[in-house]
Design a protein that fits this description.
The structure holds two protein chains of two kinds.
Chain A (H helix, E strand, L loop, with lengths): L3 H12 L5 H24 L12 E6 L8 H9 L29 E5 L9 E5 L8 H5 L5 E3 L5 E3 L9 H5 L6 E2 L9 E2 L5 H4 L6 H5 L5 E5 H14 L19 E4 L20 H12 L4 H16 L7
Parallel strand pairs in A: 1-9
Antiparallel strand pairs in A: 1-8, 2-3, 4-5, 6-7
Helix pairs in contact in A: 1-2
Chain B lengths: L26 H28 L10 H13 L2 H11 L6 H25 L20 H28 L13 H39 L17 H27 L6 H8 L2 H18 L11 H22 L1 H4 L2 H25 L14 H24 L19 H7 L8 H8 L5 H8 L3
The chains are: A alpha+beta, B mainly alpha.
Amino acid sequence: MNASQPQNATHETGACRCASRREFVRRVAVLTALTVGGVALGSERSGASKRLNDDRMAVLVDLKRCVGCRRCEWACAGANGNSHGPIEECDDQSVFSTRRNPSTDRFCVVNRSVGHGADAKPVYAKMQCMHCEHPPCVSACLVGAMRKDPSGPVTYDASKCIGCRYCLVACPFERLTYEYNSRFTPRVRKCEFCRHRTQRGQVPACVEVCPVEALQYGRRDDLLKLAHRRIADHAGEYVDHVYGETEGGGTSWLYLSPRPFEELAEVGLPALSSHSPAERSEHIQHTIFKWFAAPIGVATLLATLNWFTRKGSHS
Amino acid sequence: MSAAIPITFFRYTPVTRAESRPRYFTPGVWVVAAFAAIGAVAWIYRMLFGLGAATNLNNAYPWGIWIGIDVATGVALAAGGFTTAFLAHILHREQYHPLVRPALLTAMLGYTFVALGVMTDLGRFWAMWHVMLPTMWQPNSVLFEVAICVMCYLSVLYIEFLPAVCERFVGRVNLPGPARVLNRHVDRALRFADATLGRFMTIFIILGIMLSCMHQSSLGTLMVITEGKLNAFWHTPALPALFLLSAFAVGYPMVIFESIIAHRSFGLRGESDLLSRLARFIPFTLGVYFTAKITDLAVRGQLPHLLDRGTYSRLLLSELLVGVVFPFIIFASRPLRSRTAWLFVGSACVIAGVVLNRLNVFLFAYSPLDRSAVYSPSLSEVAVTIGAVAMTVLIYRGIAINLPVIEQLEPPHAPHRASVPREVSVAIQNPVTSMPPTAHVEWCGPSVTATATTQTWSYT
């Protein structure tokens, strides 16, 4: 609907050259009303698929291939200027004994899910910002410090941030971290999809370093096709589900797994509904404040009550 | 509309007076002051050393008691301001006028400390002004709506309280030391406010109620986005409606609770007749809230689980039984609500219920995906929260003693504006043309007795 209006506009403006002044004024008025209405309706549509690029990028994680070498953690720390030791530190398997979460100096972490049964093979799952298609953190941020780039990444701008941490509350994957220990300039820290690298034509550091090609970087549409083909080609080896295709309204990080995803909630792949949590709150918000009707209605009601109950109105 | 507003809008009319001006400091007040001082120290500590040092917040629990209590609960408990203003000024129930100013004062102080609480919790509090920058506005954000609304409402509350300041200080501005050069200007400003505000006050009242409805409900919408983390008892798209209805419900109990405490504390005889008349409305507001709450639980299929969710069941049931059902019975019964003790118990229960509800939604029922994460407030967090309440009480007391707020409390300088003869007040309605400032000061002087002209200004 929104797309059709600009076309209308050019058409109508052209036609009014030969019309009378009165007609011109009338048409301008109608057009203005249409445009204002369109903008108002359009602005209420939330950021969902409104302006996402068809070529937006994503990463496909194949949990069957991942061996838990944690090279991605190490490369991630290096690419983002976070502290890290020599590459040998990745071989320390003891970290798998407890669940780890991303932290302010480690934007991605790998966790192990042991699995049940005698011959169950462990599954290693990498967790980082999922770069949602309709990110709740972006919807939550009141100053626009969180932003969904049409090409995929969800990015953070510390210069706008006021530090309310509503984004952390809103994140359905709980991937955002906060520099609580910074006295005056704490920042939200998270995977930025290696934007500084992809802008130079490189792939994200974790993808580059992965020795078993468990991570693949590419167009989201292509990766989804690839994922479904891989499930079909290796019948029985994968669960017939691509995690992230619809979870939380869709994410840029997609997961293939040999084990049911219900068992992997503990390593960072929670069961989520197919809509973004932001959709509902935005819907409520924009229904209440559509045309500012509810507040104006309340004010009108109050003014009316005030008028009819005023002193002397009964006599 | 403005023509219908009497110039005496909000004006204070003394009925009876305290024997003498109450002392500010009593043993109890010293205790409160000690809590306020500890809170101030903890607050300074947080401001100097940051959130990490002062709080137990973490990535799984980004919001603690400063948001759950100081902000969410604070806003709810300040609902007495707009609900009482609605009754007295929108519905013109003049008999409730004595309750308006105390309620407004509480709301004003409450919201001031809500704003301070938000600031304390913000990691980059110095960037707070970004919220006022239209280029950064992000209207999809529920928090944006809350922030803008709270800012606007705080300003409206200060305006609504201004008449009390004018009444007390017009003609008596006496700033200390070198600031006295400003006396004349401050006095002029107050006279101008006094003369103009009456005409527009209804607009501010309406605006205040509208803004309250907007952000009281949005405070509920705030947690709709936590789908998957907030327990299903509380996570519902109806959160905004439930928050608004519970704010309506807690408004009058809050006014009753405060009135009883304040009058007792100042040694006044209290306004139990008026309070029990006000209490008649509470069964309706509580009933509407309870119906909405139960309907919401039923529609979402949560009622069958009412008893089988352990701690969550206990939290929900205490919220409903202690906070809604029990006080409903008290306030619905005429003999019970005519007794101050029961009024106090009933309103305390409603308040406790709403406090528990806000805590449930923001803290207790919020369970992060990381099950190992824990949050229990640090000493500094508790100290700041208690300190904020203590500070509110202290400032309330100071203003109540010195400004015309509580009807039975005589302001210190005997004849206040209520004693100004009509001719003079007519003159100050028109400050541009004929304002005789010196003459007015004379008129306000202590030689004029209050009782003689009080009737001129009363509502009867």
